[in-house]
Design brief:
mainly alpha; 11 helices; 64% helix
Length: 209
């Protein structure tokens, strides 16, 4: 099974310059590095599914923490950017697959790009919002491969809808410089996700086989 990214699944719609520019940059990176997301594919049993969720946790937990820490930057927008990670639902699924709170807290986590500005926060959120898209297909694949497996994370659309996110992003990034900064943050986040998933997959035979 594959967790679809925003580069391949999200609706572009009548988005303006900022969203389009970020979209095209992330799509280019995704085209080059999507093959590295193999940690989230071909799950055949509950143990492998737990492992895939653990890989996701290692991405989403630090991303949500970084976005939460940067809340003074984005709170005036009236959206919950930290909510794009949907960490509570992910923890719920991990618990349902047998991972205790202590084991969840001990999971390794990736190093995330710094968020020092509003464009940074919007670029990171853009990429993390991508896991919402394709969630329905992922749920279907899980149900087919592992009937009864928990799918709260993939069913959770989060508190920030795509249209609302696009609106606030366009308003918050009115000039080329701010849009370029958001682009760089989104690309860095996508590369971080791809590198983490690739490293997780490479280590699986040794640590989680």
């Amino acid at each position: 099974m594959t967790v679809s990214s925003i580069a391949s699944a999200a609706p572009v719609g009548p988005s303006g310059h900022a969203i389009r520019q970020i979209w095209e940059a992330v799509l280019a990176v995704h085209s080059d590095e999507a093959h590295q997301l193999h940690a989230l594919r071909d799950v055949r049993n509950l143990g492998e599914y737990r492992d895939a969720l653990s890989c996701l946790y290692g991405i989403h937990q630090p991303m949500e923490a970084a976005l939460t820490a940067a809340s003074p930057l984005w709170r005036p927008l009236g959206v919950d950017l930290a909510g794009v990670c949907r960490l509570a639902s992910l923890r719920k699924d991990l618990a349902a697959t047998g991972l205790s709170d202590a084991e969840c807290a001990a999971l390794p986590r990736c190093s995330v790009p710094p968020i020092v500005s509003l464009p940074d926060a919007l670029g990171v959120a853009f990429t993390m919002l991508g896991s919402v898209f394709g969630g329905r297909k992922t749920c279907e694949r899980v149900a087919e491969a592992l009937p009864g497996a928990p799918t709260a994370f993939f069913s959770d659309t989060g508190p920030v809808g795509w249209r609302r996110f696009a609106e606030v992003t366009e308003a918050a990034l009115p000039d080329p410089a701010s849009r370029e900064q958001a682009v760089q943050a989104a690309v860095a986040t996508m590369r971080c996700v791809a590198s983490w998933a690739a490293a997780w997959t490479a280590s699986a035979p040794l640590s989680r086989a």
